[in-house]
Write a structure and sequence with these properties.
203 residues, alpha+beta, 2 domains, 4-stranded mixed sheet, 3-stranded antiparallel sheet, 26% strand
């Protein structure tokens, strides 16, 4: 059962059947498990595990995938370190402030909920490791999501403030960006992406 790492009552139900929800309260009181948000828990021995926050981000608000500033930062498209885990969901926009970090979810319409991949991470477990996957946007989709969720045309100053890395920007798959833009049927997104690349003299 420890292989769950991050789990809900429904996960436990799938293993034990009709277990009383009060059992989870008892486990939490004995510090066997730690609540993340209402209805989602981790086993206490995983509290300081590297990579745990990615599993939490995918689990506490489903469906969702990591994207936006967090992915752009981790892929070196922008220089700033981003400590809030930013994600995309088909559900309403929401923020969770937990003891494991801040998790920010932005809404995107269903037809644009794509462009993510399953990235493998390893979680230490009693001297061994277990492999899990995390839904994470490609760098192109993270940029598209960011621009799509911006309201109106980007100004030159706004583009400057993002401090995009020109080399990373130039290496992006332009066809993927065009496909997402076409799917969105959003002229403003198309113009904003064009302005970004033009600013960095990328054709």
């Amino acid at each position: 059962m420890l292989s769950f790492v991050v789990f809900s009552y429904e996960d436990i139900y799938g293993v034990f059947g009709n277990i009383d929800r009060r059992r989870l309260y008892e486990w939490a009181k004995k510090k066997h498990i730690t609540p993340v948000i209402k209805g989602v828990y981790i086993f206490s021995e995983f509290e300081d595990t590297k990579g745990l926050e990615f599993l939490i981000a995918n689990k506490i608000y489903e469906p969702s995938y990591l994207s936006l500033e967090y992915v752009m930062s981790s892929e070196s498209l922008i220089p700033e370190a981003v400590y809030t885990l930013t994600s995309i969901s088909t559900k309403k926009t929401v923020v969770f402030d937990t003891s494991f970090g801040n998790f920010n979810y932005r809404n995107l319409k269903t037809e644009l909920y794509r462009g993510y991949e399953l990235r493998k991470i390893e979680i230490p477990l009693y001297g061994k490791t277990i492999e899990r996957t995390v839904k994470t946007a490609t760098i192109e989709k993270a940029l598209f999501d960011f621009v799509y969720l911006k309201k109106g045309l980007l100004t030159k100053n706004e583009i400057l403030e993002m401090r995009f890395d020109r080399n990373v920007l130039a290496a992006l798959n332009k066809k993927s960006l065009r496909n997402y833009t076409s799917l969105s049927n959003n002229r403003t997104v198309e113009i904003n992406l064009t302005h970004i690349f033009k600013h960095y003299d990328i054709h």
